Q: What sequence folds into this?
């Protein structure tokens, strides 16, 4: 007697889809609450209520609040990195950098919780998941580092610089750009919501146009 068939396969697919949807709902609830209240001030009960699931469902999917916290931070970094990667792909050099700045400003405008969580949780060495943070940071800055290297190659080929910076130099510049970008996005959202994203992009590009790489 067969134990498989179209009906059972469809039911299994349905259960898998519901499990994935539930997991994503819990992650979204964690992201929202960590952004609003901070990780320490958010309880598993809060997350379960916001996600409209039982407390047991949160533990079933993640095991503990620190594991959920790690997932939220890592997925936030990966999501922003994917936006940056997609933005830079059609361009090179300064055009790629300008495209990344504009795309990330738009992403932070539509998803301010991710911006807030990266700002408040990515640099917390006292968190239980602190050993995961270097990987999240590396994923976040990788597209920007690649573009900065491209900008340098353009400048070197044009004879505008004779230096050959080490990898750490490119990494520091990428993080400085991301820091300015996050602060500019939060400043616009909090104090100047009438300011256009394009104006903020232009200000950032003027600020970093003297980049000596």
A:
């Amino acid at each position: 007697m067969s134990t498989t068939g179209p009906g059972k396969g469809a039911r299994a697919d349905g259960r898998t889809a519901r499990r994935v949807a539930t997991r994503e709902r819990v992650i979204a609830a964690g992201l929202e609450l960590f952004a609003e209240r901070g990780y320490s001030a958010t309880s598993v009960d809060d997350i379960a209520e916001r996600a409209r699931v039982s407390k047991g469902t949160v533990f079933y999917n993640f095991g503990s609040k620190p594991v959920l916290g790690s997932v939220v931070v890592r997925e936030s970094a990966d999501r922003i990195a994917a936006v940056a990667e997609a933005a830079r792909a059609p361009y090179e050099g300064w055009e790629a950098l300008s495209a990344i700045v504009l795309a990330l400003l738009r992403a932070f405008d539509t998803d301010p919780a991710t911006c807030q969580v990266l700002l408040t949780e990515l640099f917390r060495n006292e968190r239980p998941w602190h050993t995961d943070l270097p990987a999240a940071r590396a994923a976040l800055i990788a597209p920007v580092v690649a573009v900065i290297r491209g900008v340098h190659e353009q400048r070197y080929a044009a004879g505008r610089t004779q230096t050959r910076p080490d990898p750490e130099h490119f990494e520091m510049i990428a993080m400085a750009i991301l820091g300015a970008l996050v602060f500019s996005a939060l400043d616009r959202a909090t104090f100047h919501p009438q300011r256009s994203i394009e104006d903020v992009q232009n200000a950032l590009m003027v600020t970093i146009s003297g980049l000596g790489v």
About this structure: The chain is about 75% helix and 0% strand. The mean pLDDT is 90. Residues 4 and 10 are 10 Å apart (CA to CA).
